[in-house]
């Protein structure tokens, strides 16, 4: 078993930014021996190593030295608890083995969960470029609908923070705050930019697992996903790549065809490699909807809203028309794309329609 105590020499001898190169091989070996979080949903059968903190006490009695080591598991840390629409918003953090950093995440529990202590369905919300877990939970108005329907909302962060990679903070649309919900394969980003794995595997394990204080409130078998802008891209692609993992998907102003827009080309070239265009397609909703697993699908459960006053839409960064065309050509049914007159890219837009997106998820989560 790897403990913080057993790794103590590494912390003293290695610069922080180089520690992950030593730590991850050890954690990966440990992961194979750790128990899995079990769910009847096979997509959530995951195994992740736990972090541990150990303290060592040395005592001397009659010339005999005795050393005792106490090891405690490190899980979610509650940073704040905020009342919201009859429920509670928890600001949390936890050490992540996917990213090699502490990750912030906000969790909203509706009053139905807190009062009856019964498990409620879950909606993951993925944020856009530059955002943290706080942006939407403060301005998106999702808790209003969630409290009415009895739905928990998970607000993850948009990238690792604190890796201190060269160039990580040079641009607002790449690097920190801009993980694009992919697992990077190019250095130096491959060291911790593993947001696909983090969102689909590790974070559910942390939240739903038996060791989580919130596991008793969250139904791991009833999960949907939504998002905004870069997060709308993430929600669509993670849903389309993992049939059965989520009951439905919705998106506000998603980057619907990143292979063909400036934001997407920059991110994919940096994270996945300039020449790896076939790999890019695996993270593009317009390409994924054309795949054999979705071709002719009769119940896609997709809702997309785009504002016609959105400057990014006008600049060709979102390209929802390309997604619509691909849906039609693939013969996919159950996809609704709505163009909301005059609305822009902001949280005013999202707050105006958040109840409808909550209801879209609630329908397929058995709440309506």
UniProtKB/TrEMBL annotation:
<protein>
    <recommendedName>
        <fullName>S-formylglutathione hydrolase</fullName>
        <ecNumber>3.1.2.12</ecNumber>
    </recommendedName>
</protein>
<dbReference type="Pfam" id="PF00756">
    <property type="entry name" value="Esterase"/>
</dbReference>
<dbReference type="GO" id="GO:0005829">
    <property type="term" value="C:cytosol"/>
</dbReference>
<comment type="function">
    <text>Serine hydrolase involved in the detoxification of formaldehyde.</text>
</comment>
<comment type="similarity">
    <text>Belongs to the esterase D family.</text>
</comment>
<keyword id="KW-0378">Hydrolase</keyword>
<keyword id="KW-0719">Serine esterase</keyword>
<dbReference type="GO" id="GO:0046294">
    <property type="term" value="P:formaldehyde catabolic process"/>
</dbReference>
<dbReference type="GO" id="GO:0018738">
    <property type="term" value="F:S-formylglutathione hydrolase activity"/>
</dbReference>
<dbReference type="InterPro" id="IPR029058">
    <property type="entry name" value="AB_hydrolase_fold"/>
</dbReference>
<dbReference type="InterPro" id="IPR000801">
    <property type="entry name" value="Esterase-like"/>
</dbReference>
<keyword id="KW-0963">Cytoplasm</keyword>
<dbReference type="InterPro" id="IPR014186">
    <property type="entry name" value="S-formylglutathione_hydrol"/>
</dbReference>
<feature type="active site" description="Charge relay system">
    <location>
        <position position="229"/>
    </location>
</feature>
<dbReference type="GO" id="GO:0052689">
    <property type="term" value="F:carboxylic ester hydrolase activity"/>
</dbReference>
<feature type="active site" description="Charge relay system">
    <location>
        <position position="310"/>
    </location>
</feature>
<feature type="active site" description="Charge relay system">
    <location>
        <position position="345"/>
    </location>
</feature>
